[in-house]
Amino acid sequence: MGDKNLTDIKRKALRRGRMSEYVAAVFLMLKGYRILALRHRTRLGEIDIVARKGDLAIFVEVKARHRETAAIDAVSVASQKRIRAASDLWLARQADQARLSQRYDIVAVMPGRLPRHFPDAF
To answer: Which residues cross the membrane (predicted)?
Structure first.
């Protein structure tokens, strides 16, 4: 009985995470960002959202938490390294990579509130 309950918890967490990524993507589009990829997977890791605004490539980590501080704290140094490595692979595949600047953001998605965008978070 315990395994089934754990599976349900994991399934709900995955669903909440995916929904939070979509909410964050719509939020960023409303702010004028163009979404290039959602849940972009590389052999070095996954980037939740790849967005672009002008000559700026933005790599966004989305965290669904009850508080903003918990969302920011959830992006560990190891996660930051993984996201940077995956973003390097993404950039290497872009034809206009030489003129692109890059930035790493966090979007905190909290229940009952608008998402909070933290540009240049790491």
So the answer is: 21-38
